[in-house]
Amino acid sequence: MEKHNPTIASKLSAGAHPGQGMELFDFKAASSEPPRKGKWRQLECNQSIRATFTDQARLRLPSKYTRCISVLRWTLIALCLLLSAYLLYTITAPLKIISVHHDAATLPVLRPALAANKQKTKHDPEKWLRDHSDLNHYETGEEWFNDRPKAAIISLVRNEELEGILQSMRQLEWHWNRRYNYPWMFFSEQTFTKEFKLKPTQAATTNATNAQTSYHLIPKNHWKPPPHIDVSRFHASLSYLGTLGVGKGYLLSYRNMCRWNSGFFYQHPALAPYDYYWRVEPDVHFFCAIPYDPFRFLRDNNIAYGFNMNILDDARSFASLWKRTREFMAQRPDLVHPDADLSWLVDETGNGGEYNNCQFFSNFEIGDLNFFRGEANSAYFAYLDGADVGGFYYERFGDAPVHTLSVALFAGGKDKMWYFRDIGYQHDIARHCPRPEVRRGMCDCEATGLDENFYKLVPMESPQRKPGDSCLRLWLGGSWLERREGYDAEVERALGGDGLGGYVRREFE
Length: 509
Ligand SMILES: Nc1nc2c(ncn2[C@@H]2O[C@H](COP(=O)(O)OP(=O)(O)OP(=O)(O)O)[C@@H](O)[C@H]2O)c(=O)[nH]1
Ligand SMILES: [Mg+2]
Fold this sequence. Notes:
This protein is of the alpha/beta class. It has helices at about 5-15, 25-30, 45-60, 65-95, 125-130, 140-145, 160-175, 195, 230-245, 250-265, 295-300, 320-330, 370-375, 375-385, 400-410, 435-440, 470-475, 490-495, and strands at about 150-155, 185-190, 215, 275-280, 285, 305, 310, 345, 355, 360, 365-370, 415-420, 425, 430. It has a 7-stranded mixed sheet. It folds into 3 domains: about 5-60, no CATH class; about 125-475, Spore Coat Polysaccharide Biosynthesis Protein SpsA, Chain A; about 475-509, no CATH class. α7 links the parallel β1 (about 150-155) and β2. α10 runs parallel beside α15 (about 400-410). The protein has 18 helices and 14 strands. The protein starts with 5 loop residues before the first helix and ends in a 15-residue tail after the last helix. Keywords: Glycosyltransferase, Membrane, Transferase, Transmembrane, Transmembrane helix. Pfam families: Glyco_transf_15. Belongs to the glycosyltransferase 15 family. InterPro entries: Glyco_trans_15 (IPR002685), Nucleotide-diphossugar_trans (IPR029044).
């Protein structure tokens, strides 16, 4: 017996008009065999009838078996989609959690007070950081490659410090360079061993990065006292500073190291094609993800030198450095930059115009090689190293105070220097970790204060006067130096403090 679909029949009788060049639905065929594609003929009817008709008919189309398959198919598709979404999420989640948005209040920036005429420059480092900070950004492609600064990570290191440099590399790679792939360049006066470079089954420098690595020998005359050095006077200095207990003052290798880092690294032929360097030592720590390219930052903002610790050095190691520097300035006043600001380095009142021994702690530095290669710095180094002074061997001039004085004298104003406050870092007992307010979940360390590390490097027995404010505050200047009314540093010291209290402006406001 033929069964008609009552709904369709009633809809038809209620107003649908078959014919007039349109094809009709074959009810008989529809009732006797399951309709297939092509069995439909169009109805001349309004849209609503067609919809109801189609729905009704469809309900009857698939057999139980076909419906099951269809359900299964959609379930599988849904599962696949879910799985893909989950995989995508797990791969990118660590990056997304700390995707960076800078607003004015959380910029990782502490800038020094500049001389009134220097307040306005065409560079805007804060804006640059806002525009270029992105942890999900991986630099790839030709456009990026052609535009990136010519820069390298450089390390003076010994074969026996392999474990230490691997540790430094792992952290810097993880927190930054795996997204930028700047080359690592290793320097030594010794030939680097196969173990140091590449040992397929073990950790070695080549395995610690996807970036290019290269190994360079230091020319012999860059790593030994120059001929004008009087050997017996030099030996007397080794034993004198050794006896005093000035850090590594008795080591010839240390003197060579300080001299190379002061005046020779930027002359190495392997660095000739490069414009910027980031110095990395073995056994240092990097605590924070770095969401931008510091090389590009320096270049785009015309900054010569970046540091992240500005602390006091042991003055006994460079007793005549300031006197010699003044001599050089007197000889070559033309080289001193017109914007040079020495106010944070020279204590005119408390210390009679002497150098206060503040220094950029140079085991971390990111800098412009062309500044160091320039006439002013080269001449300054040549003077300190020359026959009249011989300061790297008769004393223990360190590369940190030498770089600091050079940058301050010859690079320009403080806007040529940058405090990389957001790069958490540790070298031995000196540690810098950004405050929670500015770290944005990107650091794995306990926050340190602004005055932290100030005199950590100066042993109790050093008779040097400490400046009244920490080096970093002196560099920042302005309101960073204001104390609350009635505060007396002498009273604080008499009570056992260090005289660094009472500041109106604390680190983050
Ligand atoms: N190739 C080579 N590298 C050296 C030599 N002496 C020091 N260095 C490297 O120079 C850098 C500074 O040397 P360190 O001995 O760490 O000096 P420092 O940082 O002032 O002293 P510490 O506080 O003890 O770390 C490190 O990267 C050392 O690996 C040396 O004789 N040969
Ligand atoms: Mg060191």
